[in-house]
Write a structure and sequence with these properties.
Layout lengths: L2 H4 L11 E3 L2 E4 L4 E4 L2 E4 L2 H12 L5 E2 H8 L7 H16 L6 E6 L3 E6 L30 H9 L3 H14 L5 H15 L4 H17 L4 H14 L8 H18 L4 H10 L5 H14 L4 H13 L3 H14 L4 H13 L3 H14 L4 H13 L3 H9 L10 H16 L2 H14 L4 H13 L3 H13 L34 H4 L3 H8 L2 H8 L14 H5 L3
Helix pairs in contact: 2-4, 7-8, 7-9, 8-9, 9-10, 9-11, 10-11, 11-12, 12-13, 13-14, 14-15, 15-16, 15-17, 17-18, 18-19, 19-20, 20-21, 21-22
Length: 540
């Protein structure tokens, strides 16, 4: 077992039931069971048991245990010793038929399974799960089996008995508290900050631990993991993606019709081309027509292929379903601008600024909308007002955008050169910086520089770009967002679309093949004087 695997966090709700000799272990409900005995362990004790079991007979060090079971926090020797002592008392119940714990001096601990030649593997996540214990906490809503049973039973006395049974089957404690955590977890994961994303994951993990058979909890947790990838370094993405994959699969096992599970499966699928992705999206929308993440995903895809007028409806519906997310509101504003709906865009963004006056996403969305709509003086007023600045953004970044605002307003050679030099220096620092630089270079007339940046951004040629989106202090990683395509269809990049090189760039990005296969051209091709590349779309 690798050091990375040994240190992987133990999330009890994600671990399938397994056996240790005569012991049946159910991590999600923290149970250890034999035919004539059952015990519920404390969460930390079960985490350590899982960590030792998944080592498959190898020694696990104390440092590895603190990483996987105590989130890497500094813990006392006594804390670990108490857990190990508790597990040894548990092992005594097996009378030699369960497991034993060996201490390897100054190294760690080794779990030895009794009768290993006859018993199932100590840690086999792919093995068939054990039958659920009668004490396993059920989902917070009756299962389909119970509903069918209710429909089949007649007679007042029997119906009353079943009603009592259903009431006692619900989890202990108020349902309102459970659902409040679930709703808050869903809201937090979509806010668009690292802290809220982590908070959303923690809440949803709590939900599935309390109700392991609640499909919406698992599917929402899968989406929360996928959304959190924006804040995960490249070397850690695989582990988070594995958890997301396990979560949506669990949701599908529980309820094949769960809308969010269909969305999570779609997000995790790699498609060979844009047309395949388009078809898959439309299929998922049949299963999840009002699921907010799917609505936003559809809007994002339509923007990527230049279909902004169609994206507006999905953006509006997504914003209505996700009213607590400033990022969703900002995305709607920019979509409206690209679709030419200026008055509505201003209303949406003004309201968003009132609700979230110092939110990073809203602040910079407004700055760029002012750039795109020929109002750089309004962007400059925002950038000069330090009281409006969002927290967590390096001070020098405001100077970068200020240089663009001045150049777009004055159009003097000196100001244009200052802005171009300033943005060119930011390209290696992150994909978000590079995307912004390309737009400003095109808007200020340096089309050659814009295509050089585009080559780095989309083709990985020339300039080596950091995997970040913006500054390390902001903690956003580009991941699958490298080289967003929607900016190629905005007003700032019009000079690139008028250039013969744009058709080749669009072909390399799969856009020309998509437009030809679907027969749907981007909105910019409906202009009175369409860009030259539009004529090539019909060509074989």
């Amino acid at each position: 077992m690798s050091d990375a695997a040994a240190s992987e966090p133990v999330l009890l709700a994600h671990v399938a039931p397994f056996r240790l000799g005569s012991f049946a272990v159910r991590p999600a409900t923290r149970e250890v069971v034999t035919p004539d005995w059952r015990e519920v362990l404390e969460p930390r004790v079960m985490q350590v048991l899982v960590a030792l079991a998944r080592a498959e007979g190898e020694v696990v060090g104390r440092d590895e245990l603190t990483q996987s079971c105590w989130d890497g926090r500094v813990v006392s020797e006594d804390a670990i010793n108490r857990v190990i002592a508790r597990l040894r008392r548990l092992a005594e119940h097996g009378e030699g038929k369960g497991f034993t714990l060996e201490t390897v001096t100054k190294v760690g601990y080794r779990l030895v399974v009794a009768d290993e030649a006859e018993a199932p593997a100590a840690f086999a996540p792919d093995a068939a799960p054990l039958a659920p214990s009668p004490a396993t906490p059920p989902a917070p809503r009756p299962t389909r089996r119970w509903l069918l049973l209710l429909a089949a039973i007649t007679g007042l006395a029997v119906a009353a008995a079943v009603a009592v049974l259903l009431m006692t089957a619900l989890p202990s404690g108020p349902d309102e508290a459970f659902m409040a955590d679930f709703r808050r977890g869903e809201e937090a994961m979509n806010v668009g900050t690292a802290d809220e994303s982590a908070h959303g994951i923690a809440l949803l993990q709590s939900v599935v631990e309390r109700a392991p058979d609640y499909a919406p909890g698992w599917s929402s947790l899968a989406l929360a993991y996928l959304i959190s990838l924006e804040y995960v370094p490249p070397e850690a993405r695989e582990g988070v993606a594995r958890r997301a994959d396990a979560a949506w699969r669990r949701a599908f096992e529980l309820d094949p019709d769960d809308p969010a599970a269909h969305v999570a499966r779609y997000v995790m699928t790699r498609f060979p081309d844009l047309a395949s992705r388009d078809r898959a999206q439309q299929e998922v929308l049949c299963h999840a027509p009002e699921q907010r993440n799917m609505l936003l995903s559809r809007a994002g895809f339509l923007r990527q292929v230049g279909r902004f007028r169609e994206a507006v409806d999905f953006s509006r519906r997504g914003a209505a379903a996700d009213a607590a997310s400033p990022r969703t509101r900002g995305s709607l504003g920019r979509t409206l601008v690209s679709a030419g709906l200026m008055e509505e865009a201003d209303r949406v963004l003004d309201e968003a600024a009132r609700l979230w006056p110092r939110n990073t996403s809203i602040f910079f969305t407004r700055v760029w909308v002012y750039f795109e709509t020929g109002r750089p003086q309004r962007a400059l007023a925002m950038l000069d007002d330090r009281a409006q600045w969002p927290a967590g953004v390096p001070v020098e970044d405001f100077a970068i955008y200020r240089a663009a605002a001045i150049a777009l307003q004055t159009r003097t050679p000196e100001d244009i050169k200052t802005a171009l030099d300033t943005f060119a220096a930011t390209v290696p620092q992150g994909f978000g910086y590079a995307q912004n630089a390309m737009m400003i270079e095109a808007a200020l007339g340096d089309v050659d520089a814009a295509f050089r940046t585009a080559n780095a951004l989309y083709r990985g040629e020339g300039i080596d770009i950091s995997p970040m989106m913006f500054s390390p202090a902001q903690g956003q990683y580009a991941g699958d967002k490298r080289g967003a395509l929607h900016v190629l269809f905005g007003t700032l990049t019009a000079s690139m679309r008028a250039d013969p090189r744009f058709g080749k760039l669009a072909a390399d990005l799969g856009l020309m093949a998509y437009w030809r296969e679907t027969g749907i051209r981007p909105d910019v091709c409906a202009a009175a004087v369409p860009p030259p590349f539009c004529a090539a779309i019909a060509a074989p």
